Structure formats: structure tokens, C-alpha cells
Amino acid sequence: MTSTAIRRGLLVQSWGQLDAAKAQIEATTAQVRAAEITLNGVREEARVGQRTTLDVLNAQQELVNARVALVTAQHDRVVARLTRSWRRSADCRCSDWD
To answer: Which residues have C-beta within 8 Å of that of residue 22, sequence separation ≥ 6?
Structure first.
């Protein structure tokens, strides 16, 4: 396999990682919305005596976990973008050597 083929393969891999990161952001954004709705419902049920304080705390923890997952996915997207940009610029610089 030539160095050009390897570089191009890495660039294609970078695009795939970026697509995956974008999809993960969509999924975790939906997870955050669902956790917010759940927490609101549990709080309302606790207000009328149908849920315990522990239920509310558990729902809050689920929301925190979802938000952490979203931030992690956003981080992964930034890393994927930077990796793709770096590989694109490296491919441009190195293609003159072949």
C-alpha cells in the first residue's frame, strides 16, 4: 500500500468519525430532552405524594448523566473535526512529495 493510499484511508476514516460524532450528538440531545421530561414528571408526582425524594434524586442523576454524555459527544465532534482538518492539510502538504 502506498503512502498516498494510507493517507487517503486515514482521511476517509476521519470523515467517518465526524459523521459518527454528529449522530452521537443527536442521540444524546434526545436523551437529555427525555431526561428533562422525566424529571419534570417525577417532580410533579412527588409534589402530589406519588413519588419519593429518592425518585426525584434518581431522575436528577439521570439528567446529569445525559448531559455528561452530550458534552462528551460534543468533545468527540471537535476532536474529529480537528483530526479531519489536520489530515486534510497533511495530505495536501505530502501529496507534493509523491
So the answer is: 77
Number of domains in the chain: 1
Q: Which H, E and C letters describe the chain, residue by residue?
A: CCHHHHHHHHHHHHHHHHHHHHHHHHHHHHHHHHHHHHHHHHHHHHHCCCCCHHHHHHHHHHHHHHHHHHHHHHHHHHHHHHHHHHHHHHHHHHCCCC
Which structural domain, as residue segments, surrounds residue 50?
3-94
Give residue-wise pLDDT tens across range 15-73.
Answer: 889 999 999 999 999 999 999 999 999 999 999 999 999 999 999 999 999 999 999 99
